[in-house]
Each structure stands twice: as C-alpha cells, then as structure tokens.
Amino acid sequence: MTETLTSTPMGVEITKRQLYLVFAGVISGLALSALDGTIVNTALATIVGELGGIKYYAWVGTAYMLTSTTSTPLFGKLSDLYGRRRLFQAAIVIFATGSVLCGIAQSMWQLVVARGVQGIGGGGLMAVAFAIIGDVVAPRERGKYMGLITSIFTFSSVVGPLIGGFIVDNTSWRWIFLVNVPVAMVAIAITNKSLRLPFARQQRKVDFLGATLLVFSVTTLLLGLSWTGDEYGWLSAPTIAFFAAAIVGTVAFIRWEAVAPEPIIPLSMLRIDTVKVVVPLMILIGAVFYGANAFMPLFLQGVTGVSATNSGLLLVPLAVSVAITATTIGRITSRTGTYKIWSPIGCAITAVGFGMASFLDSSHGYLYLAMAASFTLGVGMGMIMPTGTLAVQNAVEASEMGTASSVVVFMRQLGGAVGLAAFGALFANQLNGRVDPKLVQAPRMIKKLPSPIRETALDALTHAIVVVFRGAIPLIVLAFVVALAMPNRPLRSAESMKAGTPSVD
Predict the structure, then answer these.
(1) Which of 21, 332, 433, 484 is the most exposed place for a label (fewest CB within 10 A)?
(2) DSSP 3-state helix, strand, coil percentages of the chain (rounded to 5)?
(3) What is the pLDDT of residues 196-223, one digit of tens each?
C-alpha cells in the first residue's frame, strides 16, 4: 500500500518517496550554486598567475554576484507562471554552460563573462529551490525541511574553499568549474523525474520592463560599490554617476511596479506585515554573513599563515554549527508552530560571535579563538537563515510562492553584495597608510617577508580585519531590533492554503 502525505499546499497528495525525490533534486541543484559561490576563492591566485589580468581579480566574484542577484526575482516570477521544473532545469543548464565557459577560458575577461553566465543560473537555482519546498510542504511542517536545506546550503558554501584548495593542489584549476557538468547532468536526471509536480497554471504576462529596470538599478549600484574607493574614488564623477543612475533606476522601478499589470515584485506583497520585517532583516543578515564573514578565511590564511586547504578545514566548525542548529530549530518550529523567537536569539548569538572575532590577534594562539568565533556565528546564522523564508512563505498564497521566495533570496543576496563591497572598502581604508598595499596583495606570502616588514604587514592586516568584524556588530544589533518586530503568524496547514486548479508541470 502506497503511503501518502496529507495534501500539499498545491492541493494534491504525494508519497514520502516522491517528497524525498523532490528534495534530492532540490539539493542537487542548490549544491551547485552553494559550492561555486566559494570554491573559486582558493583558486583565484592560481588562475591570475596563469591567465594574467590581475586588475580584473575582483570581477571574477563581482560578475557572479551581480548576475545571480538580478536574475533571482525574474526566475521566481517565471516559475510561478510556467512551473518549477522547467525553470529549475533551465537554471541548471545555464549554470552548467557557464561552468564550461569558465573551464575553457583563455583570458581573465573571458572568465569574468563566463562567471556572469554562471551567476544567472545560480540565482535561478536559489529562487526556484525554495519555491519548490513551499509547493510540497505546508508551512506547519516546513520548518524542519527549511532547516535541512539551509544547513546543506551553508555547509556546501563553507566546504567550498576546502574542495577548491584540494583540486588546485592536485590537478588543474579548470576542474573547479568543469566538475559542475557531471553534477548538473545528475541534477537534470533527478529533477526530470521528481519535479513533475502539479502547479496552478497562470495565464499571465512577464513583466520584462520591470525586470529590466531592476537589473539596471542593481547593476549600477553594485558597479558603483565595486569600483569606488579603489578604482575611481568615492567623490569622483564616475562614482556619482553610478549612484545617481541607481537611484533613478530604483525610483523608475517602484513607479512602474505600482501600475504594472503583472509586477515582477508586487508592491502589495511588500506591504504585508511579515514581509515588511523580513526584507530589511534579510538585507542586514546578508550584509553581515556574506560580507563580514568573508574575511575569516583571509585571517586564517593571511595572519595565521595556514594553507588554503587547511583554512577550509578550520571553517568546518562554522558549517557543523549551522547544520546542527538549522536542523534542530527547524524541527522545533514544526513541532511548536512558533518561529518568531529564533531570529532575535540568532542575532544576539551572532553578535557574540563577531564580538569574539573582534579580539583576534596575529599570535598563533588566536587560531582557536577564530574557530570558536566561527562556531558561534554558525549557531546564530543557523537560527536566522531558515526563519525569514518560512515566515514569508507562510504569509502569502500558494500562487505567489515563487515570487515570495525569490524576494527573500534577492534581498539576502543584495545585502551580501552591498555588504561585501562596503566591508571591502572599510578593509582597504584601514590598510591605507599603515602598510604598502602591494605587500598584502598575496596574504599567504606575508610570512616570507623579512622580519620587520613582516610584523608590520601582519599587524596592519589583523587590524583591518578586526575593524571589519567590529563594524558588523552594529548591523547585527540593528537586525536584532528589526527581528523583534516580526509577527508570529500561526503556521498554516496544507488544507488552509489556497491553491488554484492544478495542472501538470
């Protein structure tokens, strides 16, 4: 006798085996995006050494972040209109295509463009994956699954540098990208079978003008943040032009979305009490986690002098604490139906983690403090990350699940992009005047410098990193205040959710 679940939010019943297959498909796709977001970091020095073009060093990461951020809401909206499977598989194909282009790149500019293609697929994977979970699991039971997904995603992100270091040490850097291709083929095969899910087909048009305005606004903002302070200067004409264009584009986007028949980000959704809290919360969390936390590997490699592979190993406590916490909190949330308390508690614990990190020093003994701080940060983030998505999905109808999920992912990635640029500028500002920037372009080489110069460089690098960690504390405190305002709507069962007439994807 086939075991069935209760009705899904889409109004159908599926077996546990079907549910597990769905999760296998989602996880296979998410792993591609999560791993690639960090795996390339340990290979950049090797890549630049082979391809040249060090002035484009930062653009390898910026290109991916830019396109993944801007593509997220479009994929979410399209998945609402045309079904999850088609859009999820399209994202996998785009990501794999970008991976091949990265693997065969013969110049830094080719690599930058290829990373942009990858980012389009990566943004789609993130947006549609969380929407799929919203389709098959009711909010009342979703906590444990969101916790599991969050832990897997974060774990993949953290072990990325470890895997990247291993590949670089034992084979060509090109395999960092080419290894994605067989994984993508497996993901396609799994999702082709598992994601034939019912969905409420909607006869609507795509808001391409809104998407264009959104891409323009985010692109000019990120370009401005990436190029200013270093390339042009904060008060230069190009900087002012970029930020002015971002403001004009944002105003135009908001005005158009207010009258668009099918807006890509419905302004009515942003007026929901839960969404009004989650949006600024995700921006702040993204800035702190993706921005400030990105400097922990730099401390491990540059200050303590460990290898790229070993720095990945030392970040395992972060991955483990996120995985354990997110899974545990998810199960508790599903059992109790209460999710509000976890975000403020998580913010408080995260603040403690950054407080610990702000006492780091260049002496070898502080390696253990770095590991303890990473573990604490993981516990805090494991409480926060699943909660925002769960709260928003619980506040909207099934027909808007893709759009709502993409809004959460978009805001978190946007926060991460802005945070990374802002903390990067703060880091560079702290180095200026304290040490020759050329001495810290390759942090792992600092240990090989003559003694007086080495100590000066280490002190300057440590000081700059610690200032970044201290700068994250006010942001996470602000996130704590915002989290306190989150409504605690009762988590809905599948039967209580409204769904349209399902048709086969």
Answers:
(1) 433
(2) 80, 0, 20
(3) 666 555 556 777 888 888 888 888 887 7
How many angstroms separate the CA atoms of 119 and 158, rounded? 18
Q: Quick check: 288 and 141 in contact, CB under 8 A?
A: no
With both helix axes pointing from N to C terminus, report the angle between 59-82 and 401-431 in degrees, rounded to the nearest 10: 170
Domain ranges of the chain: 16-207+261-491, 208-260
Q: In the 8-state DSSP scheme, what is residue 502?
A: E
In this structure, are strands 198-200 and 502-504 parallel, antiparallel, or unpaired? antiparallel
Longest dimension (CA), the chain: 75
Round to whole Å and give the CA distance between 461 and 449. Answer: 14
Entry pTM = 0.76
- Measured distance CA(164)–CA(38) in Å, rounded: 8
CATH, range 16-207+261-491: 1.20.1250.20
- Residue 324 has φ and ψ, to the nearest 5°, of -65, -45
Q: Please tell me the distance from the alpha carbon of residue 12 to that of residue 6, in angstroms, as a whole number.
A: 8
Nearest-CA neighbor of 181 among 36, 78, 330? 36
Are the C-beta atoms of 371 and 500 separated by less than 8 Å?
Answer: no
DSSP-based three-state secondary structure for 173 = coil
| Beta carbons of 399 and 80 less than 8 angstroms apart | yes
Nearest CA-CA partner of 250 in 275, 282, 220: 220
